[in-house]
Amino acid sequence: MAKILDRRRLVPNLHLIEVHAPEVAKKCRPGQFVIIMPDERGERIPLSIADWNLEKGSVTSVFILVGTSTHKLSLLQPGDEVPVYVGPLGKPSEIENFGTVLLAGGCFGIGAIYPLARALKKAGNRVLTIIDVKANYLLYWEDKLKAASDRLFISARDFALESKDYVPAKIEEVAKAEPKIDRVVAIGCTYLMYRCSMATKPLGIKTIVSLNPVMVDGTGMCGACRCTAGGQTKFACVDGPDFDGHQLDWDELFKRRKSYFDDEIRSLCHWERSNFP
Amino acid sequence: MAEEKKDITPEQKAVLKAEFDKDWRKEIRKALPLKERMKFGRQKMPERPPEERNRDFKEVNQGLDAEAAMAEARRCWDCVNPQCVAGCPVGIDIPSFVKLIEQGKFLEAAWKLKETNSLPAICGRVCPQETQCEEICNVKKSTGVPVAVGNLERFAADFERGAGNIVIPPIPPSTGRKVAIIGAGPAGLTVAGDLAKLGHEVTIFEALHISGGVLIYGIPEFRLPKAILKAEVDYLQKLGVGIRTSFVVGKTATLDDLRQEGFEAFFIGSGAGLPNFMKIPGENLVGVYSANEYLTRVNLMKAYDFPNYDTPVFPSKCAAVIGGGNVAMDSVRTSKRLGADRSIIIYRRSRHEMPARTEEIHHAEEEGIEFHFLTAPIRYFGDDRGRLTAMECLRMELGEPDSSGRRKPVPVPGSEFITEVDLVVVAIGQSPNPLIPQTTPGLKMGKWGNIDVDWKTMATNLEGVYAGGDIIRGGATVILAMGDGRIAAAEIDKYLRNKPRS
User: Fold this and answer.
1) What is the mean pLDDT of the segment spanning B351-361?
2) What is the tally of structural domains in chain B?
3) CB contact under 8 A, B207 and A219
4) Which CATH number do you get for residue B110?
5) Low-confidence ranges of chain A (pLDDT < 50)
């Protein structure tokens, strides 16, 4: 059992959850994830770690409302408990002085790139960060990321923000303005990571993406999260979650990501009917 | 395929002899001569009818009743030299518990079992007795039909649980020595039970959220009801064993971290949690599962009750399970229960080489499972959504025996054929889980990714660190894991006694 310290809506559809898990907090590194189960009947789902606090012994994630499990999470209140909170899982991201690193985060990934920005900055990198949002009211953590980065950019399809670019266009723009970019790290939905990888391929910039496929145990036991990288089958939970975006079989990823699309809808309808008659 | 047999130690022999010479045993032997005993036929295990049981997840075998158990116990000759004990990886005093059942002393029989086996209700259900104790039973040698040791073990354990009369043995005062056990599967649970009974402070660290390891995520409800496992785990907790679930040793804390926290000895029983795939085209299509994933979804996450539970699993019209072991049988029978019209076993050798238990194969056949022998998949096909639609197979014939002694399957050229399937479960074995080896510097490994141990003591090359079960064997059986656990527990106790207090 793990206690919820905070759970609040950051922006529409995106929530923050802070959980008391001192052992996880002590061990976690940027790029890792936890597996959480909202209640006894819930699914085990992976959440990227967005922050942690050693004093409070807490770990924070940002998640997007998708199916039943995330809807259940979004109703939790401080003081509630979840039956499963396990981690930190997956390999930590590579942190060293690469030179100039461009981070791109969208959706829950805006949260997930925050520990990377801090660690990469600390390792001596020039850190450029792009936050991708659809509209201005979906922006969050820009202050935190601004503090952790050398420069912060926003890509949005919103004239209020004077931007109508999707993140790949922003990457190209930043790459043109910069003398050299040594690495790009993109975290967000599969489509965002795919588009970022496609944008950097012709530029020849090594691009790391953090996969979030369907998982069950998260310890390499089941193989639900398998993907193809460099022509070989890998398990995202133990071989990843970080992979070279130019090596991945994206088509397979998209298809496997949608494995349970129909079931997710069925499950959510069932849950809504039983809880909100 | 006979399991390895351990020699009975002289001490064990002395104990068996002392029991054999007790007056009550003599009286029972006198009461009914061998000739009479040989006339009794084996009591049949009551089973639910196949057409009823293949639609739900309730247990197939219903267990002997008291009368049948006593009748079965009468078949045992109480041999002066009981072979059966040598066939048992944990060395249960089989004649004693069987004769107690013959006398109607069912609770005493259960306690006798628990002297050597912490999990009798489980072993009575899932042990391959036919290749162990029952294989070398003297009654079998003479009449062809062994005493049903497994069914009797199950009976005694179930009787004790049903009577609500679980006795907690006296626990010696705490030794104050902390032992960490990694993995709450059959090996770890056995070590925990044995060491707790000796007064050590035992904590089990389990990665999943429920204890049991393969007993909870792998073996289905219809073969091992989870309530039974829960009762056995509760018993261990009553012995004083602490269990930390959702704790991944290697990630949440390493072995060295635990050492810093004051743990003095370790047992690694982290299992064979790494599914093998065949590395053939299309294996990552949606609808191709590893047996681990398929069974975990259904058993641990209760996907058979979706959407009352949130975890889904694909139903199917035609499910093909690749492999011929017990895991393959569990998977294929599960697919039938989830509503498949056709559930098929695809096995590359012939029936004779199948590693699954005879009982499981028999049950599967009764439930309408189709068997396709000498066949292997070579490719899977999917639709434009990436979902499995068909598989291409190749016929095999048996060639010369390979290193395992089984005849090696050889492809028949030009025998390819394509068949429609909408679910495939790959059940071709597991490899040891790499998490602990990867995060424990200096731990000596074998060539299959297994942890290397001294087989007499289960000690690894690191001081105070022992290992057993599938992490040292690859995919093996519950009872072999428990056998490893018993040896390791005794050795850990010895190690702690000789080690000065830190």
Assistant:
1) 91
2) 3
3) yes
4) 1.10.1060.10
5) none
User: Residue B33, SS3?
Assistant: coil
For residue B500, the model assigns a pLDDT of: 85
Distance from the Cα of B294 to chain A's closest Cα (Å) equals 8
Cα–Cα distance, B120 to B127 (Å, whole number): 10
Residue A68: its chain B contacts at CB < 8 A?
Answer: 307, 310
Confidence band of B3 (pLDDT split at 50, 70, 90): very low
Maximum Cα–Cα distance across chain B: 76
Q: Could you report the per-residue pLDDT of B295-317, keeping only the tens digit for each? A: 999 999 999 999 999 999 999 99
Residue B2 has pLDDT above 50, yes or no: no
Domains of chain A: 2-89 (2.40.30.10), 100-257 (3.40.50.80)
Nearest to A252 among B253, B273, B386 (CB): B386
- Any CB–CB contact under 8 A between B70 and chain A? no
B1 pLDDT tier (thresholds 50, 70, 90): very low
What CATH number corresponds to the domain at position B461? 3.50.50.60
Chain B: closest CA distance from residue A202 (Å): 28
In a domain, B3, yes or no: no
Instruction: Give domain status of residue B485, yes or no.
Output: yes
Q: Do B246 and A85 touch (CB under 8 A)?
A: yes
Residue type, B369: I
Residues of A in contact with B286 (CB under 8 A): 255-256, 258-259
Residue B5, pLDDT above cutoff 70: no
Residue A63 CB: number of other CB atoms within 10 A?
25
B223 with B357, same domain? Answer: no
Q: What is residue A128's predicted lDDT score, i.e. its pLDDT?
A: 96
* Same domain (yes/no): B182, B128: no
Whether B199 and B249 share a structural domain: yes
Strands, E, within A26-125: which ranges?
33-37, 45-48, 51-53, 58-64, 81-82, 84-89, 100-106
The stretches of B264-357 forming alpha helices (DSSP H) are 291-295, 326-337
Domain span at B18 = 10-162
At residue B414, the 3 state secondary structure works out as coil
Are B187 and B319 within one domain?
Answer: no
